[in-house]
From TrEMBL:
Molecular-function GO terms, alphabetical: oxidoreductase activity
InterPro entries: Nitroreductase, Nitroreductase-like
Domain Nitroreductase residue range list: 7-167
Protein name, UniProt field: Nitroreductase family protein
Source organism of this protein record: Desulfovibrio porci
SUPFAM superfamilies xref list: FMN-dependent nitroreductase-like
Key words of the record: Oxidoreductase
A Pfam family per the record: Nitroreductase
The family this protein is said to belong to: Belongs to the nitroreductase family.
Residue stretches spanning the membrane: none
rRNA-binding listed as a keyword: no
Amino acid sequence: MDILECIRTRRSIRTYTDRPISEETLRELIGLGVKAATGSNEQPWGFAVIQDKDEIQRLSEETKGWLLEHLADYPYLEQYREWLNKPSYSVFNHAGTLLLIYGDTASHWYAYDGSLCAANIMLAAHSMGIGTCWIGFGEHILDTPEFKRVHNVPESYRLVCPMTLGYSKASLPPSERKEPRIFSWRKA
């Protein structure tokens, strides 16, 4: 698949098969991720990979509990209350792989660089037939000092992107998007 087709057809995937992603494939995806543009060539990214379904499920339950406890602090999440109260709902989509991209806060560019890295991984994964989804709900639990200590993430690193990966159960049509808002276009 060429890059333009990859960009046009990539979707966030939330239902995965049980087929595992190999360590070799994940290392290749991370290697492609770090080919991203990086401010001042600081390359401030770091990664944690979780492929233990029990741990992913436990983290989902912990995340759901935390979010329900703090909905008043994040009114924009109120729309998800029903999901969060469902025992069958998995924050991490029952995925077999959770990839966490962190950025070293010593770099002013860490959030930008980590986001560009995530985009590379998402596109590369799509080109390999692997689905991905950025999981915004994961930002609170997966960036705590306790979690980072267990996963050897240095204190100076902040979570940029929690991403699920897996082989998709279904094929989805390309996303429809609004026309871009172009505020200015100057020509000589």
